[in-house]
Structure formats: C-alpha cells, structure tokens
Amino acid sequence: MRVGKGFVYSKAHMPLTLAIPTFNSAKYLPHTLASLNAQGAAVRWHLQDGASRDETVAIAQAHRREGDTVVSEPDRGQ
What is the maximal distance between C-alpha atoms in the chain? Predict the structure, then answer.
C-alpha cells in the first residue's frame, strides 16, 4: 500500500489500464495481448480499433478478460 498526496491506494485495487489504438493489427496483436494478460489482474487494456478489415477485432475479443474492453468504429485516423 502506498500513500500519496491526500490519497491511499493499493496495487490490488488499482489496476493499470493501457489504451491500445489499432487498425489492421492482426499480425502483432496476439503477442501483445498475451503479454499484457500474462501480467495478471494488475494490468487491464482498452483496445480502440479504427474499423479494421482484418482479424484484429476477433483476436482482441478472443484475448479479452473481465475488465478489458474492445471498441471498433470508423475514425479519421491519427
């Protein structure tokens, strides 16, 4: 447990959530998500996909755990 400026938190109660922007990333995504999932419950991820045309979303859904999120919708790119 750590105490910071006016707050107390514990690693067990405050997971790190990583934002993952993607577009047609099926080639690299399995390794990335497996690596994040191997970190355990302390690491969660949010995948924001730009409406990929490959298997990106299916791969993300297959790796998704409770607390992880997957959103796929068209955007205007970076």
Answer: 46
